[in-house]
Amino acid sequence: xxxxxxxxxxVPGDIAGNAARMAGLVTEAAERGAGLVVxxxxxxxxxxxxxxxxxxxxxxxxxxxxRLTPIREACRATGVAAVVNGPGRGTGDDARPTIASFxxxxxxxxxxxxxxxxxxxTENAVFAxxxxxxxxxxxxxxxxxxxxxxNSFPEVPKQAAAxxxxxxxxxxxxxxxxxxxxxxxxxxxxxxxxxxxxxxxxGSPGPAAGLSGCWLPSGEPVAAASAGPDGAGAELALSDVRxxxxxxxxxxxxxxxxxxxxxxxVDVRTAAPGLLADGSAATDGAGPDGAGPDGAxxxxxxxxxxxxxAAQEALPEGLxxxxxxxxxxxxxxxxxxxxxxxxxxxxxxxxxxxxxxRAASRFVSxxxxxxxxxxxxxxxxxxxxxxxxxxxxxxxxxxxxxSGGACYTSAPDLTPKxxxxxxxxxxxxxxxxxxxxxxxxxxxxxxxxYWALATGAEHALYGPRELAAGAER
Length: 473
What we know:
By secondary structure, the chain is of the alpha+beta class. The chain folds into two domains: about 1-245, Carbon-nitrogen hydrolase (Nitrilase/N-carbamoyl-D-aminoacid amidohydrolase, 4-Layer Sandwich); about 250-455, Muramoyl-pentapeptide Carboxypeptidase, domain 2 (2-Layer Sandwich), CATH 3.30.1380. The protein has 13 helices and 21 strands.
């Protein structure tokens, strides 16, 4: 995933106008391959405390405020998420506003809200502090949120890393380059990717420094915008954080408990004749080696199939799903994983076993937690109504090596058509309750351990099983 820090000169008090500018930057970021855009502290109103204090009702917002509609629509149209910071309306008649970050997902809906926890000096007279840690998961990556003065407390990024976050997002209004440069040390000390969206222009504390940027976990800067106070107009600083994706080999996935619900495996060929099955799945073998007798790969858990049919109904006219592979017997999964690991070991003789295991899990799930072997995962693609191929950017099942990384769902260097088609597929499947494995645009699942981790479910519904145990034919 590409993430972007958006820096622009917001107009004091003009929430509607600033929201429109943000919507334009979301669209620009999408055109440059970004999947997430972060805006500076109080960018909705500009950092003008006296104006906000004079009209806290008019200059504070809730996530569904009509003035923010352009941002939500831009997220929905582009499939890009946005972190929008401004005065957040408090609860109760006399409640003070907070300095709030609203995180809108690729569907335009609110993912989470974070309220700045540590207020700086005169902010205390205008705002109330928040209390909750800001966390959300998007595209298989665990993100942490912080706002400006929060970053002066070392325990904030330290707790983010302890909570399993791998990317740290800060909205700020810092006034000098020295303060901005400290984010490199924050990144290095905590092993985090760090992104800063900093303000420009003159606000209540004085001129802001601009210099929005991104730092690697090593502390190395990888992108930076211009300096303030006026900067050079609107700018985006972008960074690739694909190495922060939670892979199948991550211990957090294996740690998810399974409470097997007993739902049967069903044959999509007979249970859902309206779903177009790939030729390999419609025979007695699927995948490069075949999936064993009885068309094993044509099977799915009943709940997954229901959700696929709902997703197909949500697709635009003229498009449909093509089912390629579902259930995969545990023995076959072990063979796939071992074979790919051997290929990586031969190509990289200097890698130790742990690195090979992790790298292999980008493309093939470790057998003990494989969603396919639980009947909860499906490999599929979009086709035209008559079954013709559409541009998805890579062939289905293209490895990271073969595709140069373009198999990643949010790969940056896709054609506009391929990116649009992936957005259509993602919108339909996410809307039906499935989750994507972000290293493979075609792999979606429900009810397995990875799904549980991605959605925050307490446990997985499906564990690995043999087809003969309760399969319906």
